[in-house]
Amino acid sequence: AETMSQRQKVLKTACSIMYYLSHGRKKRTSDVQEPMQSSSSQDPQTSAEQREWNSLPASEKKRKVNDLVRYLIFSSSQKIPVKRDELIRSVMDGRGKSFNLALDSANQTLEKVFGLTAIETKKGTQRVYILVNCLSSDTRNVFTKQTEKDLSCNGLLCVLLCFLMMKPQGTATEEHIWTLLNSLGIEEDSTAHPIFGSIKDRITTFLDQCYLEREKKIVGEATVFEYRWGSRAKVEVDKRELLTIMSEIHEDDFAIWERQFGDLLKDE
Amino acid sequence: FKGSSHRHVKSLNNMAEDPEVNQHIIQCFMSHRILTKKQAEKICRQIHKLLNVEPIPLYQCIESVNKQIEPVGMKISIGRKEQDGSEWIGLVNTTKDTVAKSASTLTLAQQGYFKTVLELIACEDTGVSSNVLLRAVDTMERKLSKRAAQECLRDLVKEEWLHEIRGIYSIGPRTVLELVPFLHEITGIVVDECHLCSNRVVMGQHCGCENCNIKLHLYCVARLAKSRSIVKCPSCHNEWIHEIPDITIT
């Protein structure tokens, strides 16, 4: 059972995180990790890919690239990843081989014009794409619309990510997560939390958006769900920044979080 | 990934547009969707200041951004709110394809209801009462409860698709910018052109004369009245029969 002071400490953490998030903290974009699978720049382009792509007239190539940019932007408005298969079917008329080349061109436009980039990742067994912001984190949130609900959901997400980061192997069972949320005054049964609405739906959204990942594990006779950072979180959220916030809130020295610090250095 | 920590004031050759400024402008509009002209001007100034770039006038920035996003079927458009003539600026689609529809924050049922609402509003010179709009759920294919319809109307007003005053609904600035060009396609109703400014007009005033049936925006009528004591129809020159709207536009 958690003591009163522990509970207050966790609550204080959550509130401070929400405060910091709403006022935008400095983030060095050099810390953002490399794309997990850069589409075709790793392997030399196979002649089959080139041939299929070059079989199209220049105007057609241009149109496909623009359609790809448009499709990625519109389908990413809710941050739900887009399936590679869907993109190939809708934009490339089923020509899978030239997709990587088209995507490289599309990313050039996305980065130059919109300050975004499409990154490939995996959702279960599917290859999907998420749009990630390339703009510097100290300027990119200044002019965008952030409702109370957006900020609160961001805060909740940050609490969950921090919590997972502190765990050995970065995973926690669903039971542990609910213990954490209960200590913050969020009950599992509540479908109408005044700010978050249905918490279960909120967490499902985080899973859909690839901020969180969950794996089904059989432990003895029971099935448990294990949660960890999702691929979007790994690219968008700066662990160093998160740790700095945590240590500031707990008024500890950064170095006390030795294990996490060590992991961080390994990642960098 | 960009983001230098060393910023010095970037001086501009030939007033060239800074790509970083444009990226911030686009992301701002992708997030807000629509802003008043004053809000947009303020944000444009702030963006230049934050990025340490010599400020460029808003319209020039918009022109530069539009050149870049036009190939992708998007545009930053400027128009006037029908109720008071205020200028609004928003990010719109230039093509009405399925991809754009999927990005809508409305459910299919809500989209269907919005279409029905537009059909009712587009054939009136003034707004339509909420009673009429709510009764319309009975005629719809995709069933919607009255309460859901009321919530839908509330959301549409919040997102500036509709305007509501004292229970009367009319089209909002976002509809003016994004949907009015397609209104004939969506509703089958032909929308009049304002005789003075040649833009399409839904909420407005008709000349009273039998032979002259021109239509004017409320703010265009107000503009006629500015320097005259008696307002005359600009086409047939008879006295304007309607009450002159109390609107001052810049």
Q: What layout of secondary structure does this protein have?
A:
The complex is a heterodimer of chains A (268) and B (250).
Chain A: H1 4-22, H2 47-54, H3 58-75, E1 82-83, H4 84-90, H5 99-114, E2 116-123, E3 126-133, H6 148-166, E4 172-173, H7 174-183, H8 199-208, E5 212-219, E6 222-229, H9 231-236, H10 239-249, H11 258-267
Antiparallel strand pairs in A: 1-3, 2-3, 4-6, 5-6
Helix pairs in contact in A: 1-6, 3-5
Chain B: H1 19-32, E1 34-36, H2 37-50, H3 58-69, E2 74-80, E3 87-93, H4 98-102, H5 108-122, E4 128-129, H6 130-135, H7 146-158, E5 162-165, E6 168-171, H8 173-178, H9 183-187, E7 192-193, E8 200-201, E9 204-206, E10 215-217, H10 218-225
Antiparallel strand pairs in B: 1-3, 2-3, 4-6, 5-6, 7-8, 9-10
Helix pairs in contact in B: 1-3
Describe the structure using short key phrases.
heterodimer; A: 268 residues; alpha+beta; 3-stranded antiparallel beta sheet; elongated; B: 250 residues; 10 helices; 15% strand; globular; disordered N terminus
